[in-house]
Amino acid sequence: MKGSQSSNPLCLPILRWVRSKTDIDLRFSSQDVPELIEAEVVGEVHLKGVADTGARETVVKFELQCQTQELCGRSLEPFEHGLSASFQLLLRRSATCQEVEWSDESEEIFEATIPEDLRELDIAEIVRQVVELERPLVPVKPGVALPEGVLPEEIPDEEPPVDPRWAKLAGLKDKLS
Fold this sequence. Notes:
With 177 residues, this protein is of the alpha+beta class. It contains three helices and eight strands; from the N terminus they run E-E-H-E-E-E-E-E-E-H-H.
């Protein structure tokens, strides 16, 4: 399935999912979705996935790739940061449900109960939440040097010197054993 006929590129046309497995491949500009503008997503967004449709439930596994506008934690310079994330969506169809009911019981999967005759599902808010959760806490622009006097994280700290009195006791321990 390529894109959507709706004006919002993040409206999934779920009515068309009649096969047990349906490929999803959405590409669109972040500027077309207000929720992504709010999350400071810039440029093209690529949302790829597979919808596994059952009798009453559909599980959709997504891979999201986009760029976010970040502020470097070292130099305070703005830069674009590549973001990749995976998430799942569980849709349960119900004859008694009149509108989409989102559940927040699971921290791993976005769950919703949907009416059986629902044609499209807007997932813009879900994508915004995924972007916000996957953003780095302290983004660092590639190539920015460390401030003077700060060691990079890869270099282990030197062990503190051993008190000479303990060193003599360790030597005595070796002699006794």
